[in-house]
Amino acid sequence: MAVTSPPLPSPSVTTGRSRRHRLRWFQHSIVHVLLICGTILMLIPLAWMISTSLKPVGDVYLFPPKWIPDPIQFQNYVEAVNTIPFLRYFTNTAFVTIMVIVGKTLSVTLVAFAFARLQWWGRDVLFVVMLSALMLPPHITLIPQFVLFKQLGWIDTFLPLIVPDFFGGPFLTFLTRQFFLTIPRDLDDAARIDGCSSFGVYWRIILPLSKPVIIAVIILVFNNTWNEFLHALIYLQSQANFTLSLGLRMFQGEASTSWHLLMAASLLSMLPVLLLFFIAQRYFIQGIVFTGVKA
Amino acid sequence: MIASFIIAFTEWDLVSPAKWVGLQNFRELLADPLVWQALKVTTIYAFTSIPLSIAIGLLLAMLMNTKIRGLRLYRTAFYLPSVLSGVAVALLWRWLFSPEFGLINLFLAQLGIQGPSWLGDEDWALPSLIGMSLWSVGAGTIIYLAGLQGIPTDLYEAGEVDGATGWARFRFITLPMMTPVLFFQLVTGIIVALQVFTQSFIMTRGGPNDATLFVLLYMYRNAFEYLRMGFASTLAWVLFAYILVLTLLVFRSSAVWVYYEGEVRR
């Protein structure tokens, strides 16, 4: 970069500095005002949700709206949980989510390891095939997958929601492979000289060194699976098998006027995601910067 | 995937065996006005929500990138809504948009304005969903913020020495340096926006009068409500082709507007 122009002649130093100081202060105030307005706008929906969920029925439809519920009715939550088999839906969702996380993390890291570290015939060809699968939108396999699972007799079980995730996924595999490539190969070699098998290298060397990417993968998968709707809608039929998404949807049909209960149930269903967000915000941000996708 | 391609040429309700019908599904598809409606809805959604969320996201990131205090708090507040998704969020927004008691219309009523019935109004339903999609601009903001922080400060210093004003600094330093990030966001944005489903299914059921009939929703109906597996598969391929064409266009155009630092040396 060629800097050709001479430094700007500085005016009387003191007034210049204080003026610049004031200008800077002024700019910062404007930025703060804008950001605070934006923050309020962003948080209002959630605040309204919490407010609605704690109101007595009569106050839900007041004009002008009341922000602070009086009295605060925690009882709404009890009622919401009892109106639908909430606990059942919750455990179903938790089961599916945990299984998917385990399956996806294991398969994705294993495949990524094979792509990043092992030499085998056809590896590069398969890698290109996988990259092209990245371009493929998931909806295109929706129908044949449904037909397949129907023939297997897996309709109305959790299997269609879980088993595909034990076969990895192109995007996360790609991401993980890229991370593995940054780990120095000398470590592998040293381990091998000490008698480590390929699996040993994967399990003892690569995985422990890949915490950031693994946490990012887990958070991404957790969030997606917890909120998943379309597949659950297609595959689950009996109410006992419903996940929270389906349960909430049914609740909406039954009780479309009791918004206070609906908001209480919705808020409860968001709770795990919210909790995880506040505990692991750093990793959320790391993950999103890493992958460029929102969770 | 191959199976999906084959099913596209059949007429099949899953009960009786599939019947080979050749190109008939494609012919029906072209003649079906709802297919065009679905494509129109999806296109309008994509072409408004993506540019809006990129513009607002970038603006927010630039505001946050001014070495202000409380950055972490702002970042958390803006990012929080975008980690929430799915049915619960759709329900929340249905409540906010509710014509009589929804917060938005209550607020407008306090200003003396009679708000429309949003999701129930043919003209407002789609804009409502677009507005709702902006609730998650925070994810983009985080990415842009990381990108902005990666721009070397000596570029700005050089600009200042050369007398570049605020706008010129944005136009000739910030924007070019951010194009790779914007490009990536554009591509993923297209793929996500063309596959909207939950919102329309939960909040409007495609209505009113098919004003929010997204392609994926129409495909779902054909496959799992009308049991027209063949027709739905054809629709899936049409949507895929559409995504592909748009993405290719973006990729092609990227040579003109995306700037990679490494390229200069060539």
Characteristics of this structure?
heterodimer; A: mainly alpha; MetI-like fold; 2 domains; B: 266 residues; mainly alpha; two-stranded antiparallel ribbon; 2% strand; globular
Folded structure, characterized:
Residues 1-13 of chain A have low confidence and may be disordered. Helix content of chain A is 71%, strand content 0%. Chain A has 295 residues and is mainly α. With 266 residues, chain B is an all-alpha fold. Chain B contains 13 helices and 2 strands; from the N terminus they run αββαααααααααααα. Chain B has helices spanning 2-7, 24-31, 33-64, 71-83, 87-96, 103-110, 125-133, 137-149, 153-161, 166-193, 198-204, 215-225, 229-257; strands at 10-11, 19-20. Chain B has a two-stranded antiparallel ribbon with strand order 1-2. In chain B, helix 5 packs across helix 11 (198-204) and helix 8 (137-149) crosses helix 10 (166-193). Chain B is globular and about 70 Å long. Chains A and B meet through helix 1, helix 6, helix 12, helix 13 and helix 14 of A and helix 1, helix 3, helix 4, helix 5 and helix 6 of B.
CATH topology of chain B: MetI-like fold
Q: Cα-atom Rg of chain B, whole angstroms?
A: 23 Å
Largest sheet of chain A: none
Second CATH tier, the architecture of chain B: Orthogonal Bundle
Relative strand content of chain A: under 5%
**Quick one: how many beta strands of chain B?**
2
The interface involving the most residues is between: A-B, 72 and 82 residues
- Based on CA atoms alone, the radius of gyration of chain A comes out at 26 Å
Number of H- or I-type helical stretches of chain B: 13
Overall structural domain count of chain B: 1
N-to-C SSE string of chain A, H for helix and E for strand: HHHHHHHHHHHHHHH
In summary, what is this structure?
By secondary structure, chain A is mostly helical.
Explain the layout of strands and helices.
The complex is a heterodimer of chains A (295) and B (266).
Chain A (H helix, E strand, L loop, with lengths): L12 H41 L3 H4 L14 H9 L2 H32 L5 H12 L7 H10 L7 H4 L7 H11 L4 H9 L4 H12 L1 H16 L3 H6 L8 H11 L4 H21 L1 H11 L4
Helix pairs in contact in A: 1-14, 3-14, 4-8, 4-11, 9-10, 11-15, 13-14
Chain B lengths: L1 H6 L2 E2 L7 E2 L3 H8 L1 H32 L6 H13 L3 H10 L6 H8 L14 H9 L3 H13 L3 H9 L4 H28 L4 H7 L10 H11 L3 H29 L9
Antiparallel strand pairs in B: 1-2
Helix pairs in contact in B: 2-13, 3-7, 3-8, 3-10, 4-8, 5-11, 8-10, 10-13, 12-13
